[in-house]
# Entry
Amino acid sequence: MLGASPKSRKGAPVKLGSMKEAPAAAGGGGGNGGKVPAEEVWEVRPGGMLVQKRGGGGAGDDEPSPNVKPVPTIRVKVKHAGVTHEIYISSEASFGELKKLVAAKTGLHPDDQKVLYKDKERDSKAFLDMAGVKDRSKVVVVEDPEARARRLIEERRNGHLEKAARAVAAVAAEVDKLAPKVAALDASVRKGEKVAENDVVQVTELLMNELLKLDAVVADGDVKAQRRMQVKRVQKYVETLDAVAAKNAVIIRKSSEKAAPKPPPPPQQQQPRHQQQQGPTRWEMFDLLSSLPSTSSASSTTTVSSTASSGAPPTNRLDWML
# Structure
């Protein structure tokens, strides 16, 4: 049973460490007189794991264990730019923590420092005690130009990313304000209602301006993905407004056709009488001519008389008359 010590066999006593007094169980205590070994006290960690409790079993959690020695604090002499600084730090600390304390003393950024111990550069993740650093040990810190350049480039890159992220966020906020207007215009034309063309044009221009802002943003990683998402969103709204404009034009045309009065039918024009009466055919004209009296004799008489009066000799007209 957890919290109780196992029974030792006869002739083979088991030494379990220091014993502490514990309240006896009901029904008359165990064979060890109600004492629970310190090593046999268990506890439940926050993750649900059951582990053996460290230190004295019945003592409070805040009391330090007598078996655990405190971590000593050492004094490290750090030399930088000809000046020696004394820094107090835990012997089990890392060189990265030492760099932070040096930065507080010298103003040199921790990422720009190169720590040399025994003429060997030490990694920021290495520990002082593992490297052999003891009390009054001497450490040299110099500036690393390459590390400084990398840090500045990274800061500049992060600055650009932050600026791009702010720009994309600003565009997203403006698009959020225009989205209800697009939805309202689309709903109106779907119901067959006429909307103002100026409203459609104005919202479209505002969306195109936001699209131009997104085109000017240069980003990488997550910011680039957010920019691409906003571009697709704005393009979708612009396409919706184009469809709204087309439907609105149809609605306006239909309403104008219904409102316009129908023109009266044109009056039937009466054709002239000479066009209404059909003229005689060719055969009828021939019959009319044949029924008229011949004027050839009269014309010949007139011709003869005129030639006689003029003194010209008469011309034989028999062939013409025939």
